[in-house]
Amino acid sequence: MTPTQILALINQYIVSNGVGAITGPILNNILTQIVNLFTTSSFASRIITASTAQTLLSSDYRVGFLRTLNLNATTVQLIGITVGNEVIIQDLAGNFSTYPVTVLPPAGSTFSGGRASYAMNEDNQTARFAYYGSNIWGVEPA
């Protein structure tokens, strides 16, 4: 869990239910997440080698595309990602200009500026996607 996610978790309880909603078990969960933040050496990452449609979930943080066989353009759908989560997508094979990746937000959501998709079409490109809630996603080149 990232610092942003931890703050979102705290905010969720306080805004939704007031300060009194932070009971012992909830506070224990929050403190455990903070401890894990400082004792975990890295966030979840995975490498994708296939040129097939992909779904990225809240468990994904860093996703590297290392596609070298049966190359095609690829679509990536972001699903189940909670407020404060980020996903970083990177071209590890240097072939996004020839085989682009189109990133789609969850149904009913848009990227900043009202965009329905985000094209990754530059070799060695990296982009960071962050969910802000209210069906709004931010995108920034990393």
What does this structure look like?
The chain has about 140 residues and is an alpha/beta fold. It folds into 2 domains: about 5-40, no CATH class; about 45-140, Sandwich (Jelly Rolls). The protein has helices spanning about 5-15, 25-40; strands at about 45-50, 55, 60-65, 75-80, 85-90, 100-105, 110, 120, 125-135, 135-140. The strands form 2 sheets. It has a 6-stranded mixed β-sheet, with no helix packed on it. The chain has a 4-stranded mixed β-sheet with strand order 2-4-6-8, with no helix packed on it. The longest helix is centred in the first third of the chain and has 16 residues, at about 25-40. The two termini are about 20 Å apart. The model has no long low-confidence stretch (mean pLDDT about 85).
- How does the major sheet shape up? 6 strands, mixed
Mean pLDDT: 84
Q: Termini, distance in Å?
A: 19 Å
What is the level-2 CATH architecture name of the largest domain?
Sandwich
Please provide the ordered H/E string of secondary-structure elements. HHEEEEEEEEEE
Q: Specify the CATH homologous superfamily of the largest domain.
A: gp9
